[in-house]
Amino acid sequence: MENFHEPATPAIPEAASQPLPPENGSLKPALNWRSRWPGRLALVALGAAAVTPIGWFLWHQPAPAYLLDLSPVASQYSAKDQNSPLLNWQISNPRQVGELTLKTLAADGSLVGDPKHYDLSGTLPLDLQPYCSQTPQRLTCQKVPTAVRQPGQYRFELTLVSRSGRQAPEQKTSSLVTIVDTPAPLVLGLAPQQVIYSEAGPTVPGPNQAAPVGPAGVQLSWLIRSPESLQDLLLVVRQPAGPTLGGRRFSFRQAKQPGQLVIPDALKAFCQIRPDLVCRGVPTGMTAVGRYQFELTPVPVKLVASTAPSTRVSDVVEIKPRPVRIVAFTVNGRAAQPKYLVPVDQGQRLPGFRLSWRVEGGATTRVELLPSPGTVPMQGSLAVPFGPASSTTLTLRVSDGLNPPLIRALTVETFDPTPQAGTKPASGQAPPGPIPPRATPAAPSLPPVPPQDSQHPSLPQRLQPRSPADLNLRF
What is the pLDDT of residue 431? Predict the structure, then answer.
C-alpha cells in the first residue's frame, strides 16, 4: 500500500497575504497618513525650535528669595537687664534681596519708633555682620538686637523687597514679646548699730554706761531689694518729730555709663551687691549729744510722677552726754561744808572767802554759780565778799542738759560774838544768847580752830571770838 502524502500548500506571496482593499478605494487614507508623517515631524521640530529660548530663559531664571523664619530669641525680657529683645531670621536666595525693613509694633498693631532699614543690594550691611552668616542659598541671622527697651508687649515685622522688583514684597510677623517692668528699689531694713551711745571722750564708769560713740559717729546698716533700678540713695537725719538736721546723697550711676550700676566710693568699703544691696556699718558722722532718726529713700532710675519713692525710717538713736561729776568744791582751799558760822565784831570789816570748783563733763555740761555770777567755766575760783545780810548762800549747779542736775550748796552766817547788853543787834549780827534755830551744832566755823579760853561765858565755845588769822578768810 503506497504511503499517502498530503499535497503541500503553495506559498502565498507577501502582497497576496495582505487583505484585499475594498473596491471602494479605502486604501487612500492609509497612504495619506504615511505621506503626512514627515511633515508633522517637521512641525514638531519647528515648534521645539521656537520654544527653546523661552525654556532656556525659564530654566536660567534665578529662584526668588523667601522669608523662611522670623522669631524672637525669648518670649519675655526684664527691663532691669537693660537689654532689648533679640531676633532670629532666615532668608533663602539672599542674592535676590534688595532691602529688609524691620518694624516694631505694639500689641495693638501701632508702630513703635522708626523702622530699621537694611540694604542688601550689595554686601552684607555692617550692622548685620556681627549677627549674620550668608551663603548663596541661605542668609541666617541670630540674636539681632532691636531698639525697644520700655516695658510692654511687642511684635516685630520683617519685610523683604526683591532686588529686581518683579517679586511682590514678602512679610513675616514674629510672635508676641513681653518686656516686664523693672521693680522699683525697696528698702527692706534700716537699723543703727546701737540705739544708745555715750558721748565721746573719757567717761565715768557706771553699771549701765553705754559704749561711747566713735569718730565715725552713729553707724547704720541697710538692705535694699532690686538695686538694679537704683539711681540714688538719700540719707536724711532729723530730730524725732522735729526739723531736719542734714542729709547726704549717694549716686549709683555715672555720667559716662548711666546704664551701669556702680557703688559710690563713699560706700565701697561697706556695701556689696549679692543680688540685694547690703550695707553694714555705714558712718554718718553724727557724734553730738542728742536724739536722732535716720530716713533712707531709694530714688529709681525711672521715677514715675504718680508714685513716690518708698522711705524707711530708723529707730530713735540717742547719744547720751558724758556723766558730770563735781571733782572739787572748796572754800579757801579746803573741802566746802554745807554751813559756816563766822563771828564778826562790831565795827570790824566784813571778811570774805575764796570759793573754788572743778567739774568733769562733756560738751553739754553747764556749770552755774548761783545767785551770782551765773554761768561759770568748768574749773575756776572766785572771791566772795560778805554782803550786808547775816546769811549768804551759794549754790554750784552742774547739768548735762538731759539728766537732773548735780547741786552743791553752802551757807555762811555772820554774827556779833560780843553784843552790848540792852542794845539791839545791828544788821548782820547774831543776837546774843543761844544759837539761832537755823544754826545747827554741827555747823563748822571758817575754818575750825582749837578751842580757846572763853571770854563770853554766855556763848557756846564754838561761838567764842577768834582772831582773823584763825578764820583763814583772807584772799
Answer: 42
Q: Domains in the chain, please, with CATH?
A: 66-180 (2.60.40.10), 186-320 (2.60.40), 325-419+426-450+457-471 (2.60.40.10)
* Strand partners for 237: 246, 294
Is the CB of residue 218 less than 8 Å from the CB of residue 286? Answer: yes
How confident is the model at residue 399, as a pLDDT? 92
Predicted local confidence at residue 363, as pLDDT: 86
- Please give the pLDDT value at position 274: 87
Residue spans of the chain under pLDDT 50: 1-20, 22-31, 33, 56-58, 422, 426-442, 448-475
Helix (H) or strand (E) holding 58: helix 27-60
Asked if residue 442 lies in contact with residue 434, where contact means CB atoms within 8 angstroms, the answer is: no
CA-based nearest residue to 324, from 381, 218, 239, 408 = 408
Distance CA 365, CA 381 (A): 18
> Longest C-alpha distance within the chain, in Å?
230
Cβ within 8 Å of residue 301, ≥6 positions away: 182, 229, 230, 231, 253
Q: 381-422 pLDDT, tens per residue? A: 988 887 666 788 899 999 988 889 999 999 988 887 776 554
Write the DSSP assignment of 83-124 as a string of letters.
---EEEEEEESGGGEEEEEEEEEETTS-B-S--EEEE-SSSP
Q: Which H or E element spans position 157?
A: strand 152-162
Choose among 351, 392, 350: nearest CA to 372: 392
Cell (9 digits) for 402:
538731759
pLDDT at 42 (0 to 100): 56
Q: What is the pLDDT of residue 173?
A: 94
* CA 93 – CA 117 distance, rounded (Å): 19
Find out whether 384 and 475 touch, Cβ atoms under 8 Å. no
Distance CA 359, CA 83 (A): 67
